[in-house]
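Hey,
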Amino acid sequence: MKIITDLPASDLKGKRVVVRADFNVPIGQDGEVAEAFRLKQGWSTIQYLKERGAKVIVLSHIGRKPEETLAPVGRALKHIGQAVYVPDLLGPAARGAVQSIKDGEVLLLENVRSDARETENDESLAKELASYGELFVNDAFAAAHRAHASTVGIAKFLPSYAGLLVRDEVLQLEAALSPQSPSFAILGGAKFETKAPLIKSLLQNYDHLFITGALANDVFKARGLPVGRSLISKELPSEDILKHPGFIAPVDVTAERSDGQARVKEPEDVEADDKIVDIGPDSLALIAPYIEKANFILWNGPTGLYEDGYTSWTHAIAVLVAKAHARGASVVIGGGDTIAAIEGSGIKQSDLGFLSTGGGAMLEYLMKGTLPAIEVLG
């Protein structure tokens, strides 16, 4: 994988550099950026290029709908660095801004997914986007598992390099593929059918794996335990997973009734009206010794429905993980949901180890050891 730092500064000065960033951040009800983690993480590469006199043209997507705009991101970037937002992608405004850009300036163009050809990895769009630059830098790790025009297609037409963020992500996740023992992995989220290959891989590479989130509901269901109104996947864990000596599941749950009342129960006591929304104190006590002894900790997915306010046990795990990191354990934490759920814990992000900007990209890299948008960087 070629990295932008491989080029001498003299090769960057005055060059138009197209940077694919991942500025797909949550937008609040006030229309402003609600959480700027990805903006801050992604600015390092842009700043690196700015300082070397490059002309930086930033591409990103936002949201799931083509009409969604990067305007809030443009406003938020004013608090992080200097960038000019252009509400256009391929029209006269965008082309004019690119033609007039000066050394050390940064342009942020409109949502690349406003063009339907983006997600189809259409070569004509990739060629149009490539025409804006002389070099291409992919720094959008969180979108690197998508073979889109601005992540994969554009690399056919320009000399292409990884940015600083992608470099660091790959370095950290390479270590996570072969962790130092004793190692401990925590995996949450949903859709067991998509995560089964990863779970098997983690059980092979890690000493112990703790399954939490909605995935734990599938474990209870597979074991013949009641799950009430809880979210269940289409596929349930197989016996080779359930009986693996390194496999750990919650031993108590927080269950919410339809009237909104919640209390901690043992899994066998879950009632028909209950929805499992988090783990409980006994589950935390179960995994605490593994975290305390681990030399390597991988964590993807909060323990509960954090968007509904169930964050206390995720916060408690974060406290344990921060202590482990302080004594020298390597820690890799990912998924935007995980980082968002940890945010209210009062723990500094710098005390938690490496925080990945990728959720799905992180999991896919751990399964496959590479990603489409990384493959094309040589």
